[in-house]
Write a structure and sequence with these properties.
The chain is α/β, with parallel strands linked by helices. The protein contains 6 helices and 5 strands. The radius of gyration is 14 Å and the shape is globular.
């Protein structure tokens, strides 16, 4: 079941890629059902906040009519950035599942944020590398292609 949710996040990442966005996808799951989906939309919206996780969280909050997503999990193709880690903590999401580690600027920051003793909410973190190669290749190819254009 978990792999199905990550596959859906990957499908969304591919949708972002097809639209010229950084290929990251996210889904929020409640009681075994996807209640929020998102993929990066920064370029098309010209809004720095339109990360996959933020969009998925917004949609899940709307679906549950609550900003508290305590009984939810989020599945993200790439380890979240600090902004998205903060949003995950603030939404009180119970568990983060991600499929590829961020190996550049944000390496390890997500875990530091979500496991900080200063937060009154702890998020369980699960790195599942089952699709890591596929996700990593998709992201690497995006940036290679982008550098060729620039």
């Amino acid at each position: 079941m978990m792999k199905d949710f990550m596959k859906e996040a990957m499908r969304l990442a591919k949708k972002a890629l097809s639209q010229g966005e950084v290929p990251i996808g996210a889904v929020v799951v409640y009681q075994g059902q996807i209640i929020g989906r998102g993929y990066n939309k920064r370029e098309q919206s010209q809004n720095a906040l339109k990360h996959a996780e933020i969009i998925a969280i917004e949609r899940a909050c709307k679906k549950l009519h609550s900003w508290r997503l305590e009984d939810c999990e989020i599945f993200v193709t790439l380890e979240p950035c600090p902004m998205c880690a903060g949003a995950i903590a603030n939404a009180r999401i119970a568990k983060l599942n991600y499929g590829c580690q961020e190996k550049t600027s944000c390496d390890g920051l997500c875990e530091k944020i979500l496991t900080s003793e200063r937060l009154n909410h702890k998020v369980e973190i699960n790195f599942d590398n089952h699709y890591e190669q596929e996700i990593s290749s998709m992201i690497s190819q995006f940036f290679k292609d982008k550098r060729k254009k620039d």
